[in-house]
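TICKET: design request
STATUS: open
ATTACHED STRUCTURE:
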C-alpha cells in the first residue's frame, strides 16, 4: 500500500470513528469517553481519577472533564477515601448502572471498517 493509500485509510478510519461516536451519543446520550468511564467503573466498583485516566488513556485534565460531565448527569458519585481523606473515589450511582445496562455491548453496530479491525 502506498503512503497516499495509507493516508486515505486513516481518513476513512477517522470518519468511521466519528460516525460511530455520533451514533453512540444519539442512542445513549453519552459520548464515547463517558461510556468508557461507566464501563470502567462497572468492572471495578471504585476508582480514583488517576486510575480512570490510566484506564481511559486520557490526560488528567480530560479525565476531569469527563468525570464532571457524568457527575452532572448523576451517573457517578464521588466518595472520600477511607484511609486517605485527600483521595476521591468514584463509583456508579443506580442511575449510572441503569444507563450502563441499556448499552447492550453485543448489539452495538460498528461501521464495517471498524468491525473488520475489531474481529
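STATUS: resolved
RESOLUTION: sequence designed for all positions
ATTACHED SEQUENCE:
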Amino acid at each position: 500500500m502506498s503512503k497516499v493509500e495509507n493516508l486515505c485509510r486513516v481518513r476513512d478510519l477517522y470518519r468511521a470513528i466519528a460516525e460511530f461516536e455520533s451514533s453512540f451519543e444519539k442512542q445513549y446520550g453519552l459520548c464515547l469517553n463517558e461510556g468508557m468511564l461507566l464501563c470502567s467503573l462497572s468492572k471495578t466498583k471504585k476508582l480514583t481519577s488517576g486510575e480512570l485516566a490510566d484506564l481511559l488513556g486520557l490526560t488528567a485534565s480530560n479525565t476531569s472533564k469527563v468525570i464532571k460531565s457524568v457527575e452532572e448527569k448523576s451517573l457517578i458519585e464521588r466518595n472520600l477515601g477511607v484511609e486517605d481523606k485527600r483521595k476521591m473515589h468514584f463509583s456508579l450511582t443506580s442511575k449510572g448502572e441503569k444507563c450502563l445496562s441499556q448499552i447492550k455491548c453485543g448489539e452495538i453496530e460498528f461501521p464495517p471498517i471498524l468491525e473488520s479491525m475489531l474481529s
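CLOSING REMARK: Helices lie at 3-28, 32-43, 49-56, 60-72, 94-102, 112-118. Strands lie at 76-80, 88-92.
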